[in-house]
C-alpha cells in the first residue's frame, strides 16, 4: 500500500526549491540526504526555503509499521540536522551584525565612517580608514594628556580683602629673668651654688680669659667630671654633615643651659613661686579703653623664661582700628631681681597667637627692650586650604579630643618630639614643661645623665632632619597675624618717678624703699625698669588666602568634549549612538547563542 503526502500550502513569500522543476519533495529529500528507497512508513515534513534562499530543513521520522517498535534515528541522521542548524545560526548572526553596522554607517555621526561605508572604491575606503584610525589615536593621546593634567591636582591661591570686626588675639608675655634674686635662698643646694659661683666665671668666659695665663685655673672650672658634657666623637657620629660636629659649645649657651637644666629639674609649683609674678609686674592694662586686671591672665611655665602669662578673652573684639581699639600694657621689670652673670639682659618676650592655642616662647615671638614703648600693628590673615587630593591639611577633631588643646602645627610637632624622647630615652625634654601638662604625667624626670643627654641629642637631630616622623600638616582653616613693629624711648626720667610711686602701691614698704635707694631720683637705671606695649589692628581689613583648584572637573569635561569633537567630530549624542550600536551588536551575538541552545534542545527531544 502506497503512502502519499499532500504538499502543504506555501506561506506568502515562500517557495520550495522543487517548484521550478515540479520535483517531488520525497525525491528531493532522498537525493540531498543520500537515503534511497524511502519506505512508506516514514512521516516526511518539508520546511521550505525562506526569502533569503536558505536551504530547507527536511525532518524525517520513521513510523512504526505493523506494530514495530519505534527506534532512534541513526547517528548519521542526527548529525545532519545538527550541523545544518549550527551553520544557519552562525550565518544569521553574521548577517544580523552586518545589517546593524551597515545601517549605522549610513547615518553615523562619527566623521569618516559614512565615507568608508558608502564608497565602492577600495582605495578610498583604505584612505578613510587610515585617517579615522589616526584621528582616534590622536584623540586618545590628547585625552590622556588632559587626564594627566587633571590628576596632578594643581591649585591656585586667590587673595581677597574683607572688612569685619575682628577678634583680638591672645597675648603671652614672659620676663626673660627665670629666677628672682630674692628667692635664691629658697632654691635647691645645686642652684644656690651655681648662682654664687657664677659671677667670676661668666665674666671670664665673656672676655675669653680662661685661655689667658694671668688668670688662675680656679677661676676656670674643670668640666671633665660634668655629666652634661658629651664627648666630641658622639657629635661626630650624630651630626656627620653639620656644624654641630665641628664647633665647640658656646660659653654663653653653656652657662645658661646648665642653669636652665637645674631649674627644669625642680617641681613646677616651686618654679612658679621663684619666678616673677604678674601681680608685681603689671602696672596698667586696658583694652579699647576698658581696664583689665592681673587676674585676667593665665599662667604657664616656659623652660627658657620661667613664668609666662597669657591674656585672652573671647569678648575682646576690635571694632575700631588703631591704638584706641587695641590693648595697652605697662610692665615693671623688677631689674633688681635679676641674677648677675646668668640674666644677661632685661626685657620681656611677647608672643601673639590665636586664642585657645598653646604658645611656645622658646621658638616664636618677639623680644621687647626695656625703657621703650613698643607698638605692634597687626593685620589678620586667614588661610583656607583645599586638602586632599590637592595637598595635605589637618582635621583637628581627633587631636583636640586626645589632648584637649587647639591644634597648631607647632603644638603637634612639639608633642610628637616629646613622645619620641619619652619612648626612646625614658626621660622628658625639660625645656617645654607645659607639654607635660598637655600630654599628662609620665613619671619621668628631665634628661640629665650622659646617656640620656646623648639619646636626647640624637632624637632631636633625627626629628629635625627627618620630615616624615610626624603627621603635622597645616590646618585646613587657620588664622595668623602679620606684625609691623616700631618703638621709641619710654618713659622719661620724670615720668619714671611717677611710675615708681605706682609700683610702691603694690609692693611692701621695704621693697619700695629699696627701689628708691638703689636707683635714686636721677638714675636712668630706674627708667630701664619699665616697658609700655601697644598692640592693635592697623585696620579691620583681613586678608583671605583661599586655595582653589587650578583645573576643575567641569573644565575637564569641557576639554574632553572639545577634544572628541576636534578629532572625530562626536558630540554627547554621537557617543550615545556608539554605545547604542555596541548594545545592538551584543544583543545579536547573545541572541545567536540562545537560538543555538534552543535548536540543540529541540534536536535532543526529537532524537529521543
Radius of gyration: 48 Å
Q: Which range does the strand content fall in?
A: 15-25%
Average pLDDT score: 78
The rough form would be described as elongated
CATH topology of the domain at 166-180 and 226-546: Acid-sensing ion channels like fold
Largest sheet: 8 strands, mixed
Give the beta-strand count.
Answer: 17
CATH architecture descriptor name of the domain at 166-180 and 226-546: Sandwich
- Identify the CATH homologous superfamily of the domain at 166-180 and 226-546: Acid-sensing ion channels like domains
Give unreliable regions as ranges.
1-23, 28-84, 211-215, 217-230
Put simply, the count of helices is 19
Q: Which structural category do the helix and sheet elements fall into?
A: alpha+beta
Task: Look at the structure and give the CATH class of the domain at 166-180 and 226-546.
Answer: Mainly Beta
Report the end-to-end length measured between terminal Cα atoms.
Answer: 28 Å
Q: In percent, how helical is the residue content?
A: 40-55%
Amino acid at each position: 500500500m502506497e503512502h502519499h503526502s499532500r504538499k502543504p500550502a506555501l506561506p506568502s513569500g515562500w517557495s520550495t526549491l522543487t517548484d521550478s522543476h515540479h520535483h517531488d519533495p520525497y525525491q528531493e529529500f532522498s537525493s540531498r540526504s543520500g537515503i534511497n528507497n524511502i519506505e512508506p512508513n516514514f512521516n516526511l515534513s518539508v520546511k521550505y526555503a525562506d526569502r533569503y534562499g536558505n536551504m530547507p530543513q527536511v525532518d524525517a521520522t520513521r513510523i512504526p509499521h505493523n506494530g514495530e517498535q519505534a527506534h532512534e534515528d541513526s547517528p548519521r541522521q542526527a548529525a545532519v540536522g545538527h550541523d545544518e542548524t549550527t551553520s544557519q545560526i552562525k550565518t544569521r548572526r553574521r548577517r544580523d551584525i552586518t545589517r546593524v553596522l551597515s545601517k549605522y554607517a549610513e547615518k553615523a555621526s562619527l566623521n569618516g565612517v559614512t565615507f568608508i561605508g558608502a564608497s565602492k572604491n577600495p582605495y578610498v575606503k583604505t584612505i578613510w580608514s587610515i585617517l579615522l584610525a589616526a584621528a582616534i589615536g590622536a584623540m586618545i593621546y590628547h585625552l590622556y594628556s588632559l587626564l594627566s593634567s587633571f590628576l596632578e591636582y594643581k591649585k591656585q591661591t586667590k587673595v581677597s580683602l574683607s572688612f569685619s570686626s575682628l577678634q583680638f588675639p591672645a597675648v603671652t608675655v614672659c620676663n626673660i629673668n627665670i629666677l628672682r634674686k630674692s628667692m635664691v635662698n629658697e632654691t635647691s643646694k645645686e642652684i644656690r651654688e651655681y648662682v654664687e659661683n657664677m659671677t667670676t666665671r661668666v665674666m671670664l668666659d665673656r672676655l675669653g680669659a680662661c685661655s689667658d695665663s694671668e688668670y688662675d685655673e680656679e677661676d676656670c672650672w674643670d668640666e671633665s667630671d660634668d655629666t652634661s658634657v658629651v664627648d666630641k666623637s658622639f657629635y661626630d657620629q650624630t651630626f656627620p654633615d653639620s656644624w654641630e660636629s665641628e664647633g665647640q659649645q658656646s660659653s654663653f649657651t653653656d652657662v645658661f643651659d646648665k642653669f636652665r637644666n637645674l631649674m627644669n629639674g625642680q617641681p613646677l609649683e616651686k618654679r612658679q613661686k621663684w619666678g616673677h609674678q604678674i601681680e608685681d609686674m603689671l602696672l596698667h592694662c586696658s583694652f579699647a579703653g576698658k581696664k583689665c586686671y592681673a587676674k585676667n591672665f593665665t599662667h604657664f611655665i616656659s623652660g627658657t623664661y620661667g613664668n609666662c602669662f597669657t591674656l585672652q578673652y573671647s569678648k575682646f573684639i576690635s571694632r575700631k582700628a588703631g591704638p584706641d581699639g587695641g590693648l595697652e600694657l605697662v610692665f615693671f621689670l623688677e631689674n633688681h631681681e635679676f641674677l648677675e652673670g646668668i640674666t644677661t639682659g632685661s626685657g620681656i618676650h611677647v608672643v601673639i597667637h590665636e586664642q585657645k592655642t598653646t604658645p611656645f616662647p622658646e621658638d616664636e615671638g618677639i623680644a621687647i627692650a626695656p625703657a621703650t614703648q613698643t607698638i605692634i600693628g597687626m593685620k589678620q590673615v586667614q588661610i583656607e586650604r583645599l586638602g586632599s587630593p590637592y595637598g595635605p591639611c589637618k582635621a583637628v577633631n581627633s587631636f583636640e579630643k586626645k589632648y584637649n588643646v587647639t591644634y597648631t602645627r607647632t603644638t603637634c610637632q612639639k608633642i610628637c618630639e616629646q613622645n619620641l624622647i619619652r619612648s626612646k630615652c625614658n626621660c622628658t625634654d625639660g625645656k617645654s614643661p607645659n607639654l607635660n601638662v598637655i600630654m599628662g604625667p609620665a613619671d619621668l624626670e628631665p634628661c640629665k645623665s650622659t646617656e640620656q643627654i646623648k639619646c636626647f641629642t640624637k632624637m632631636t637631630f633625627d626629628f629635625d632632619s627627618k620630615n616624615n616622623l610626624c603627621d603635622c600638616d597645616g590646618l585646613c582653616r587657620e588664622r595668623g597675624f602679620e606684625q609691623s613693629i616700631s618703638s621709641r624711648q619710654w618713659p622719661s626720667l620724670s615720668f619714671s618717678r611717677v611710675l615708681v610711686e605706682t609700683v610702691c602701691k603694690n609692693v611692701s614698704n621695704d621693697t619700695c624703699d629699696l627701689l628708691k635707694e638703689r636707683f635714686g631720683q636721677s638714675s636712668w637705671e630706674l627708667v630701664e625698669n619699665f616697658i609700655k606695649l601697644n598692640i592693635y589692628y592697623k585696620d579691620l581689613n583681613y586678608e583671605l588666602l583661599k586655595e582653589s583648584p587650578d583645573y576643575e572637573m567641569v573644565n575637564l569635561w569641557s576639554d574632553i568634549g572639545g577634544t572628541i569633537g576636534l578629532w572625530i567630530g562626536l558630540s554627547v549624542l554621537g557617543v550615545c549612538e556608539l554605545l547604542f550600536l555596541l548594545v545592538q551588536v551584543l544583543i545579536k551575538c547573545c541572541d545567536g547563542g540562545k537560538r543555538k541552545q534552543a535548536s540543540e534542545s529541540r534536536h535532543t527531544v526529537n532524537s529521543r
